[in-house]
Amino acid sequence: MHKKAIIYMSISALAFALLNVFVKKLGDFNVYQIVFFRSIGSLIFTIPYLIKNKISFLGNKKALLVARGLVGFAGMTLFFMAIKHMSMGSAVSIRYISPIFAALFALLLLKEKIKPIQWFCFGIAFLGVVLLKGFDNQINNIGLTLAVISAIFTGLVPIIIRKIGTKDHPIVIVNYFMIISALIGGLLAINNWKNPIGIEWLLLLSLGVFGYFGQVYMTKALQSSEINQIAPLKYIEVIFTMIIGAIWLQESYSLLSLFAILLIIIGLVLNVMVKQSKR
User: Model-level pTM greater than 0.90?
Assistant: First the structure.
């Protein structure tokens, strides 16, 4: 495994972890307003990139690009809602079961096969979710439901991106996602808009910066090394999120909760390794 790839994935995980913490910290703001600022912050990077490189904003697979944007908006919004109802480490862990739904969608829509051992891996991860619900008293049914539905929508994203294929530039795909999220989030936030004061402006605008660099460095990491070697490292976002949450927001976890989160990560990492080994 390349040292550079490890550094890139660590930067990505830290960026996403900080994004999670800032969303939690901005709990007084409406979720749609947070989505709006998260999207605007990323558009500051994507729009100039497309203009500089003379890449069409509209893209080629327009219907699929819009679908990716709508599905991404739903997944992101539901995840931000879930963070308000539970500890961040638990929310991130549950959102990360999205590969299970991605595999199911691939089975149903793309007719891809799933190895029996992958079902075993998924079972380990699901057992972790069930135990987490039982052991983490900070999780309520609303939070759990929001996080699981978020994971379902997130699981659809790679299927749509696979359908788009190489017909559109990756930044065009991200740009559609951010524009759609900014438009819908902005419109839905109007009735409950709260004017940011002082440092709140910085926190809100930094969401997009962390999100953008999280995506960029994750892509760089995956391009720098074998996917089966580097992909499992993305789950250190859970660890970073829990550490920062414990220090900054005084979040705490029981040993049983930590065991449940570990089961989720083990199940998902094993799935990545099994999935790549069959190629």
Answer: no
